From TrEMBL:
PANTHER family in alphabetical order: GTP CYCLOHYDROLASE 1 TYPE 2 HOMOLOG, NGG1 INTERACTING FACTOR 3
Species assigned in the record: Maribacter stanieri
Keywords of this entry: Metal-binding
Protein name according to UniProt: GTP cyclohydrolase 1 type 2 homolog
Annotated residues for binding of a divalent metal cation: H65, D103, H327, E331
Subunit structure: Homohexamer.
Family that this chain belongs to: Belongs to the GTP cyclohydrolase I type 2/NIF3 family.
One GO cellular component, as annotated: cytoplasm
Coiled-coil intervals: none
Cross-referenced Gene3D superfamilies: 3.30.70.120, NIF3 (NGG1p interacting factor 3)-like
Molecular function GO labels: metal ion binding
Length: 364
């Protein structure tokens, strides 16, 4: 398998189109056409991770966090980022990152946290906007089923737990072909009226190029009339953070004790207790202060996240318990998630879970 083959499998799970605009995701180092000897999955790519990849004969590192985040104007080895890039290139090791694409994936980072905490009835905390597009095209009625099936195969018409969704209206299409045309139906220089069907279906923005390619290859006309619109409908299956429920209510102390144990946290920084039972839990891996308002609006009893600053704990406002367990701690099981996924997809391939310690924070 090539680097491209494996990254495509990863992008089926966490499409890069759903990554945040500020992020730097995808293949960061290496050639997409390189044959892969083995894959090492890690949370961060550091020099010791490169050494581990070499020792395990892995020439592709799948790293949740991107080692290259901002632009690199020089690569001289003066800092850890440049040293990692140099070492990877010297040893022909490719580096791929999916970061916020995996944060926003339905079964990604926050689904894993929810699983670790035993949450049920989970849903996305902050659905991502502008993820859905709508295709409208016009097809000769006798070719409708062929075009529909081709579009469905490319991913059109999928809405949550439903697939092959579309809407059709019949009418008459008309056109006049000039001397340079090669019309499928009708004759050059004459007006032609054809019984056509207006076909409409939605699709995820990550599938746009595949949808257009499928439409143009399956449609019988030389010139295919279609338009694509971004729609504002909220997609409840794509977005950041997650909210769910514990099987049974617990006290605040019981919840934080369990949280610390299940997430291997050294400590939990939290806002004031409200002396109320915990049932509804919101989670967001990594830096999640921006979602405090969303967690409160969703009626969460507690919000588990990381990197909260001093004044942000005030935002609890006696409505919710904020629990900060640390950045690494919220995301540490992400590499297990990716290893499990890749192992299921390519069971006879060498997929390794990194044993390197990459948490930069120590506790005394």
């Amino acid at each position: 398998m090539t680097v491209k083959d494996i990254t495509q499998i990863l992008e089926d799970f966490a499409p890069l189109a759903f990554a945040e605009d500020f992020d730097n995701v995808g293949l960061l180092v290496g050639n997409a056409n390189t044959k892969v000897s083995g894959v090492l999955v890690t949370l961060d790519t550091l020099e010791n991770v490169i050494d581990e990849a070499i020792a395990k004969n892995c020439n592709l590192i799948v790293s949740f966090h991107p080692i290259v985040f901002g632009g690199l104007k020089k690569i001289t080895g003066k800092n850890y980022v440049e040293r990692v890039v140099i070492k990877a290139i010297k040893n022909d090791i490719a580096i791929y990152s999916n970061h916020t694409a995996l944060d926003n994936a339905r079964h990604g980072v926050n689904a894993k946290i929810s699983e670790m905490l035993g949450l049920t009835n989970t849903k996305i905390l902050i659905p991502q906007k502008s993820t859905i597009k709508k295709l409208t095209t016009y097809v000769p009625t006798d070719s409708l089923e062929d075009v529909k099936n081709a579009l469905f195969k490319a991913g059109a018409g999928e809405i949550g737990n439903y697939s092959e969704c579309s809407f059709s209206v019949e009418g008459n299409g008309s056109y006049r072909a000039n001397e340079n045309a090669n019309p499928t139906k009708g004759s050059i220089g004459t007006n032609h009226i054809e019984r056509e069907t207006m076909l409409t279906c939605v699709f995820g923005k990550n599938n746009e190029s595949a949808i257009i390619k499928s439409l143009q290859s399956s449609h019988p006309y030389e010139e295919v009339a279609f338009d694509i619109q971004s729609i504002e409908n909220t997609n409840p299956y794509i977005g950041i953070g997650m909210i769910g429920e514990l099987e049974n209510k617990v006290t605040e102390t019981e919840f934080l004790t369990s949280l610390k144990l299940k997430m291997n946290a050294k400590l939990v920084r939290h806002s004031n207790f409200l002396n109320k039972p915990i049932k509804k839990v919101a989670v967001l891996g990594g830096s999640g202060s921006f979602a405090i308002g969303a967690a409160k609006a969703a009626g969460a009893d507690v919000f588990v996240t990381a990197d909260l600053k001093y004044h942000q704990f005030y935002e609890a406002e006696n409505q919710i318990v904020l629990a900060d367990i640390g950045h690494f701690e919220t995301e540490q099981f992400t590499k297990n998630l990716l290893v499990d996924y890749l192992t299921k997809k390519i069971p006879n391939f060498a997929i390794h879970l990194s044993e390197s310690i990459t948490n930069p924070i120590n506790y005394f």
